[in-house]
Write a structure and sequence with these properties.
Blueprint lengths: L1 H25 L11 H19 L5 H24 L6
């Protein structure tokens, strides 16, 4: 239980920052950042994509897939908002 929570937390933090950085750097010139529900859609897609992997691994449970999906969704939504505002990524 403790190990699962630590893995889910670390995966959530890492995926949030990576997805936010990817959207802000790579997708800022596309029309993808203009869509209002892009964070919800990508979060749900990430949860569905992570579910089979989580089902195979004995150490983690379904909470890990949900944490991963929520982190990706919030990262994409925040990165899209920052890209719309014109905030440049820090190098």
């Amino acid at each position: 239980m403790i190990i699962e929570s630590m893995i889910a937390g670390a995966l959530g933090v890492a995926s949030h920052f990576k997805s936010k950085d990817f959207v802000r750097r790579r997708l800022r010139f596309t029309s993808v950042v203009e869509k209002p529900g892009i964070g919800i859609f990508t979060g749900a897609a990430a949860t569905i994509a992570a579910a089979p992997v989580v089902a195979i691994l004995p150490v983690v449970g379904p909470l890990t897939a949900v944490a991963f999906g929520a982190a990706v969704g919030t990262g994409v939504a925040l990165g899209a908002r920052q890209a719309r505002q014109g905030l440049l990524p820090e190098d």
